[in-house]
Amino acid sequence: MNFRSDNVFAASPEIMAALVAANQGAATSYGTDPLTKGLEKTFGDLFGSEVAVFPTVTGTAANALSLATLTPAYGAIFCHEEAHIYLEEAGGPEFYTGGAKLMPIRGKHGQMDLAALKEMMHTAGTRSVHWMPPTVVSVTQSTEAGTIYSLDALRAIIDAAKEKGLRVHMDGSRLGNALARLGCSPVDLTSKLGIDALSFGATKNGALGAEAVVLFKPTKEQRERLAYLHKRGGHLVSKMRFVSAQLEAYVKDGHWLQNAARANTMGARLDAGLKKIPGAVLEHPVEANEVFVRLPEPVIKALQADGAGFARWGAIDTTLVRLVCSFATTEKDVDDFLAAAGKRMAEVGGKAA
Amino acid sequence: MNFRSDNVFAASPEIMAALVAANQGAATSYGTDPLTKGLEKTFGDLFGSEVAVFPTVTGTAANALSLATLTPAYGAIFCHEEAHIYLEEAGGPEFYTGGAKLMPIRGKHGQMDLAALKEMMHTAGTRSVHWMPPTVVSVTQSTEAGTIYSLDALRAIIDAAKEKGLRVHMDGSRLGNALARLGCSPVDLTSKLGIDALSFGATKNGALGAEAVVLFKPTKEQRERLAYLHKRGGHLVSKMRFVSAQLEAYVKDGHWLQNAARANTMGARLDAGLKKIPGAVLEHPVEANEVFVRLPEPVIKALQADGAGFARWGAIDTTLVRLVCSFATTEKDVDDFLAAAGKRMAEVGGKAA
Amino acid sequence: MNFRSDNVFAASPEIMAALVAANQGAATSYGTDPLTKGLEKTFGDLFGSEVAVFPTVTGTAANALSLATLTPAYGAIFCHEEAHIYLEEAGGPEFYTGGAKLMPIRGKHGQMDLAALKEMMHTAGTRSVHWMPPTVVSVTQSTEAGTIYSLDALRAIIDAAKEKGLRVHMDGSRLGNALARLGCSPVDLTSKLGIDALSFGATKNGALGAEAVVLFKPTKEQRERLAYLHKRGGHLVSKMRFVSAQLEAYVKDGHWLQNAARANTMGARLDAGLKKIPGAVLEHPVEANEVFVRLPEPVIKALQADGAGFARWGAIDTTLVRLVCSFATTEKDVDDFLAAAGKRMAEVGGKAA
Amino acid sequence: MNFRSDNVFAASPEIMAALVAANQGAATSYGTDPLTKGLEKTFGDLFGSEVAVFPTVTGTAANALSLATLTPAYGAIFCHEEAHIYLEEAGGPEFYTGGAKLMPIRGKHGQMDLAALKEMMHTAGTRSVHWMPPTVVSVTQSTEAGTIYSLDALRAIIDAAKEKGLRVHMDGSRLGNALARLGCSPVDLTSKLGIDALSFGATKNGALGAEAVVLFKPTKEQRERLAYLHKRGGHLVSKMRFVSAQLEAYVKDGHWLQNAARANTMGARLDAGLKKIPGAVLEHPVEANEVFVRLPEPVIKALQADGAGFARWGAIDTTLVRLVCSFATTEKDVDDFLAAAGKRMAEVGGKAA
Fold first, then answer.
1. Strands A134-140 vs A76-80: parallel, antiparallel or unpaired
2. The dihedral of CA A205, A210, A215, A217: what is its sign?
3. Which of B74, B225, B228 is opposite residue D229, by nearest beta carbon?
4. What is the average per-residue pLDDT within A316-338?
5. Contact check, Cβ <8 Å, A130/C30
């Protein structure tokens, strides 16, 4: 019954096998090895665009490096008020950009409100040197609320940003979950929409530790800038083949989409089960592998005592709980949790928090 | 009819005279001159506390240096969502702190909502290394909305911050206006409340260009840190006596409070007059020298054509207008503006924007 | 007998008069006033080039802003190992650039050794992403050793830099002294040589506090970048007319060159006098207004007791002494010092340190 | 014949096995897993001190984070003029410290000259706020020149630094090689000498990608500071167990020392062989696993054509060549290279470069 996060699970056998296979003989270091050099072809094909690919081992690094490539230090980045880049990275984006400002945009269920975004872009864009000029819009897909932007919703945001001359970043730490749900191609969700930089995540969905910054149609200056930031940030791994091997195995033969589909299915199962439990109040629509539910405090404590793993979402004393499924989550995990939750909720009379 | 800002006016005769007087003979440089060295005594007496004083020539520098002395780069600073430090300094605080995050707190009329602040401090303070830890609360007095926090309101905010271990910064670019209105002493408004750092402003209220960071009961480490930041930021003026002379003259014999009272009186006169004009909608209570009023677009354009100077507050096409009075604003300025506004509003039938 | 620095002196009467004259009525703020707007014409004419001019009140700010406009954060800046930007600005350039590296180049008498510079540019420029790429060469004219690069020497350095694709910055905090000595025009020393950015100093040579970043043929992106850095660094003075008035008066009718010539003449007088004192060992050729001389420790102490003001150059216990003349230095100052020095040296038997 | 670097080789079987073993079931993320939590005990025992351990996957990260924990942004770090932190990390230390200055100290064979270091610490430490205050001395052991500081030499440097109030960092990316040579214990080389922070390297000596910042007797503030920097720099790996498993296996049963001894032995074999080849000029004493040799340009080209892998050290056209041995280097590799080198040198008549 471990729903703490998708990153508490081990790596998938396929990816582990690729890592072991990469551990043969000598290979040139610092990303000049064949595996790493092959990534731009692999990802270029995957996303239907000329790309630059810079592997990292954390999503925080991928996000911070992406943003720092897209904005000067004096720019304003707009993102959802609950975005990971805004709340959960201890200021990584501020650090890598040299003090850019992330400005939170409100919106339901983890998705930016288009009107609020447009108003902020308009206001900020008409002020003088006193305001930081808007430079980037960042969207997370799937979102931090476990929902998924529709292609139309994304297109509207991106078109509005482009119209104002902004660049667009996508935090794709759970991109696979979005693709598995939407059923569209990676091309549809990235290059066709006009994404400029993508944080491509693999760790939450089967890798040991492998993410990447993917720049779309990068300028020479962007490549250079990112290459140096990547190095001075300490992300140019000397034996890079071991990261690149994970990325290759991750996207090979649709491995990532299969893993993501599995996690989504478990999320849907949790959702369906919780909806049948009186007093368990779902906070957001469940569209991927994350479930947010409000439970009474005694139920939370009882479930923890029962051995269920999950995180409170917000302060330590909140009664909003996050449950995350992964490719390794089993039906039994889900059903055991639902049974326990049903029992514990019944004990408090099915009264909502 | 120039109400664009309090910094469009010339320096007061008293301060100009002090500057001329300081231009005699040699004086040691980089803040080791007698005028600068005397500031800690002068300000210590004024604020009833041991203080460190670092003169600057801009308020942006004073704010950024203050904040960077109080927080590490990974800290979160809470301020009102319309705070000057958040919106109007092009990221000066982010730059000087090395990428701290300013988190906006909502609240009416430029004043932070206490409950919202407390909730944010609680949530942020209970998260792990992923969130930036709350380190500073910054209040502006008088506020960016032209209102003034009551001593009780300030005390509640500061006590809540201190209870959570945060430090407190006051942006006092218009501190004189607040004192003139509240009728309390500088001691009451700073050291007695527990302020840790004050951005002390003189430029808007009569100086040519003179502000200061005032640290209250600074630690040795804070003094050192500020001294180096001040230097490397380019604010250690070599002929510092010319800044310090302004500061001395500014506070001498209550000059600053007289100037501020004059500006406040003109603000009140504008307020009273506008209230009599049908269709002119005041946005905030007028408690100092700034007046925010909504006017119909044709009226705004007509008043500009009449030669009135003021700023639209927000985007370039907003109908919210800011009028600022200074020590040099005359009754005639105010009355001429009111007459013009009355006439132009009548032309549109007194219909609000 | 005050030779501590050229910034211990008061402002010149001409500049003070201009400041007083500027203190009339209202003027738009933050550099939109007519005086500031006129600077680009004035300086464009002076330097024979299209320029952007951003006034500051310190030389540290002018240097740091200049460099941060010319290099990305990951670039290497080459300068003399005794350059002010390397040693005396508490890391201002590192701070404003976001962590660029200043790499010291050796060379006699404050002037970079051309071969050493070329070797460093070659080596650094052929390394991969591990080394910071060379981006800027910074020269100081007149130098920190009180010498002056010949036009030929400067041209050789600048041509070598340009050939490698680097940009060139000139620290001109004492530019007037160099011009007064060389007898060439400001055009010859800047735009004709291919300077990209100039830190233009006025404070040491008669102003109260006025310097400027002058960009030559700036790109749109450089202008924007500098404008935001200038603001967020806290250097966009609200009542900018008071800085700009100083700059205008400084260059009007050759005022700056007259002041500089006067200071140089006093430097030459000191030099000539010291050469006649047995045991006083001049460290560098005296070509401007600064004199470096080695004196025995007892003589240094005795001269201090005699009331002479000067700085030890390096550690507190060094016997290398710096004497600086300004436009306000008198023949009597110089002669009194020489008399005292002669007497004190005689007391120790004319034995060198 | 691959001597390009120690990081071109695969991971050792022991470490790969540990990684595979760690890939079982769920584990809490972001360093809260048992393997990571166990590191402080393991390293505390190893180094004979209370320590804090923060794993990273690159040495650049370990160095930059170590330095940024020890110095404020305005501090000066002294290191050898050929130190990796100075030349080879694209400004990582400048980036993480927020613009501290690395000041190069000369010295033979990669080791700082004690007198030069002392003089610089003295001078910098007696200057005012204009100079950056000396805060850290960084030593590399084994050095970038493939030599090893004696314990006495290190003690002299560290004692001199401590006397001036500086902190000491050791870049131990090849610490194992030093220990294997000196035959002393890890305690002797670190805590007994008074090291404050160690960059502990495993990647070059058998790991896939595992390094660590080790703080000795850290203060609460240092731990907090490092924890946040580690996170915001993007180095808090979510599945940290996979890094920690490598570190545990690396030091278990002396695995690291055996690997290092093997590499050193191969280095010595190269050294001995090269000494017998007329015209091959060894640049530094060979004391660890790196060999620096000057060869004529035609010989370099011929050896490359023969399939030998190595790096030119400095510019692309230098004739100084670096050869690095690792735990996986074989006697045959060495002997083949020596044979080829002997043959090629003979072809040019044994004439030195």
1. parallel
2. negative
3. B74
4. 96
5. yes
Both tokens assigned to C196: 């990209």
What pTM, to 2 d.p., does this model score? 0.98
Question: D12-253 and D255-347 share one CATH topology?
Answer: no
- pLDDT tens digit string along A19-59? 999 999 999 999 999 999 999 999 999 999 999 999 999 99
Contacts of C228 in chain A (CB under 8 A): 72, 74, 129, 132-133
Q: Looking at the domain that runs over D12-253, which CATH code has it been given?
A: 3.40.640.10
**Domain made up of B12-252: CATH architecture:** 3-Layer(aba) Sandwich (3.40)
Backbone angles phi, psi at A54, to 5 degrees: -120, 105
Kindly report the nearest CA distance between residue D191 and chain A, in angstroms.
26
In the predicted model, what is the mean pLDDT of residues D295-315? Answer: 96
Among the partner-chain residues C7, C65, C92, the one whose CB lies closest to the CB of B29 is: C7
Give the per-residue SS3 of chain B.
Answer: CECCCHHHCCCCHHHHHHHHHHCCCCCCCCCCCHHHHCHHHHHHHHHCCCEEEEEECCHHHHHHHHHHHHCCCCCEEEEECCCHHHHCCCCHHHHHHCCCEEEEECCHHHCCCHHHHHHHHHHHHCCCCCCCCEEEEEEECCCCCCCCCCHHHHHHHHHHHHHCCCEEEEEECCHHHHHHHHCCCHHHHCCCCCCCEEEEECHHHCCCCCEEEEEECCCHHHHHHHHHHHHHCCCCCCCCHHHHHHHHHHHHHHHHHHHHHHHHHHHHHHHHHHHCCCCCEECCCCCCCEEEEECCHHHHHHHHHCCCECEECCCCCCCEEEEECCCCCCHHHHHHHHHHHHHHHHHCCCCCC
Q: What is the CATH number of domain C255-347?
A: 3.90.1150.10
Q: Which of these CATH numbers, 3.40.1190.10, 3.40.50.2300, 3.40.190.10, 3.40.640.10, describes C13-253?
A: 3.40.640.10
Give the mean pLDDT of B217-239. Answer: 98
How far is Cα D16 from Cα D18, in angstroms, rounded to an integer?
5
φ/ψ (deg, to 5) at B159: -65, -40
User: Which tens digit of pLDDT belongs to each residue from B41-83?
Assistant: 999 999 999 999 999 999 999 999 999 999 999 999 999 999 9
Find chains touching chain A: ≥3 CB pairs under 8 Å: B, C, D
pLDDT for B249-278, tens place per residue? 999 999 999 999 999 999 999 999 999 999
Cβ neighbour number for residue C215 with a 10 Å cutoff: 25
- Give the DSSP per-residue string, A67-107: HHHHS-TT-EEEEETT-HHHHSSTTHHHHHHTS-EEEEE--
Q: d(Cα D113, Cα D119) in Å, to the nearest integer? A: 10
Stretches where chain C sits below pLDDT 50 are none
Structure tokens at C237: 């003075």
Domain boundaries, chain C: 13-253, 255-347
